[in-house]
Amino acid sequence: MKKVQQHYDEVADVYDDRYDGRRGKCYHRHISDHVMRELPKGGFLLDLGCGTGLFVQRYVEEGGRAVGLDISPGMVRHGRQRCPESGFFVGTADVLPFKDATFDALASLLAFSYVPNPEAMLRECFRVLKPGGRIAVCTLSRTAFTSIVPIAYQMGVKVGLKKVGVGDFDEHYYTNAEIAELFEDAGFEDVSVSRCSFAHLNLADPVFNLARKVEPFVEEKLPYLAYNVCAAGKKPEN
Ligand SMILES: C[S@@+](CC[C@H](N)C(=O)[O-])C[C@H]1O[C@@H](n2cnc3c(N)ncnc32)[C@H](O)[C@@H]1O
After folding, report:
1. CATH of the domain at 153
2. How many CB atoms lie within 10 A of CB 48?
3. Which of 48, 59, 97, 238 is an S-S bond match for 93, by CB 3.0 to 4.6 Å?
4. What is the tally of structural domains in the chain?
């Protein structure tokens, strides 16, 4: 976890550049749309692995209140600048400094793969949600492609590649069935897992455009394509 924290502290000042260009904006907006759709509007949200506060800002703009928690003090500093009215906490997603039944909504975007103990994180999410509260987690799913990502990242580290999110962080990816089981074991009901975005953000333009065009037709046949999924559930009313 220390490595992840150090990495995000190092890239905190340039993290938002990734999502500032046309493609980056479109990509993050797309993911946020999926997550928003799964959550109650106008409630009190906790965003885990909140980074620079992009989703906290979105939830507040849509009429809610929100706080964020992230393991990287550097990212949290940017979150505080972006949304001075919201609370930002430094901490790890599997030990939450909040009372039981505090939140109406729980989100986590592009951070779940870093959490070493997803069972503990989901237990904590369940605890801090109010009965009837909803959770939505967007994360890279496990495919033939993402199974080799850790090796590619290890090589990247060896050649000194310092890109946002690229490093040997012992990330974990899950198939749709695995993530659904994690949610159900934590006690959530109405669990769904849906594909929410093509994840090859780093491809050069012509290849990216071509891959996006053909992806809907070949995604089941070419499992090496990487995509994010949005897993969602509800804490039972009683
Ligand atoms: C790819 S960034 C995503 C940031 C933000 N959610 C977004 O959508 O822009 C991953 C974030 O997860 C945070 N993170 C990684 N492991 C974490 C953990 N165990 N607990 C809390 N945050 C964590 C990192 O510090 C980083 O800010």
Report:
1. 3.40.50.150
2. 26
3. 48
4. 1
